[in-house]
Amino acid sequence: MKIGIIGSGKIGGNLGKHWSKAGHDVLFSSRHPEELGSLAKEAGDNAEATSVEAVFEADMDVYLLAVPFGAIDKISELYAGEYGNKVIIDATNPYPSRDGEVAEKVRDANYAASEYTATKFSTARTAKAFNTIQAAHLKNRAFQEVDRLAVPFAAQDNISKEIVEGLIEDIGFDAVYLGDLGKSKMMDVDEKLYGKSLSKNDLLNLFE
């Protein structure tokens, strides 16, 4: 599968390396693609680094959003013609201190942050994943044979559900499907699953 990483920091960078190791083709991008050469080299032969524009033009199968939440509006507007019918994995979190008014609006709303993302990327298939697990655990606990961690996710439709579930399992985490995007509210900042790195059983026990 061809995966475009939009934002190649701790979350996007490590996920890109994991997916490359698992055999997927990965394009890393950021506002400063010239700084991503070492990341792409570390990720191996399946990975390259380029600009955000070039990643969208490359017609990837899946795009991971791992950027500040405040960038969603601009990215969705700039590349609206490029992501139609693709799967968008939203790994963002709205922090008002960093992202400003739009984050405050979403945090105070009765809908999930991923539902806001889905309205902006309206022609894509949106899923929510990888925004709750701690970055250090995402980096160091992939491909575990024992003591596997779970990654909760929500998805807009069956196609995005199947693809994201596979991408979670491909890198050695247990996928836990919560339901449609409305269910991802529990994954948002300060909600039940935020910041939790748990086994599948421990995660499921939170709902009993």
What features would you describe in this structure?
- By secondary structure, the protein is α/β, with parallel strands linked by helices.
- It has a single domain, classed as NAD(P)-binding Rossmann-like Domain (Rossmann fold), CATH 3.40.50.720.
- About 35% of the residues lie in helices and about 20% in strands.
- It is built from ten helices and eight strands.
- It has helices at about 10-20, 35-45, 50-55, 70-80, 95-100, 100-110, 115-120, 135-140, 160-170, 200-205; strands at about 1-5, 25-30, 45-50, 60-65, 85-90, 125-130, 150-155, 175-180.
- The protein has an eight-stranded mixed sheet with strand order 3-2-1-4-5-6-7-8, with helices on both faces.
- The model has no long low-confidence stretch (mean pLDDT about 95).
CATH superfamily: NAD(P)-binding Rossmann-like Domain
Number of helices: 10
Give the total of domains: 1
- Cα-to-Cα separation, first versus last residue: 36 Å
Structural class: alpha/beta
Overall form: globular
Low-confidence stretches: none
What average pLDDT do the residues reach? Answer: 96
Major β-sheet, in short?
8 strands, mixed
Strand content: 15-25%
**Spatial arrangement of strands, main beta sheet:** 3-2-1-4-5-6-7-8
Give me the Rg, rounded: 16 Å
By DSSP, the count of extended strands is 8
CATH architectural name: 3-Layer(aba) Sandwich
Output the helix-strand order. EHEHEHEHEHHHEHEHEH
As an assembly, this protein is: single chain
CATH class: Alpha Beta
- CATH fold-level assignment: Rossmann fold
The percent range for helix content is 25-40%
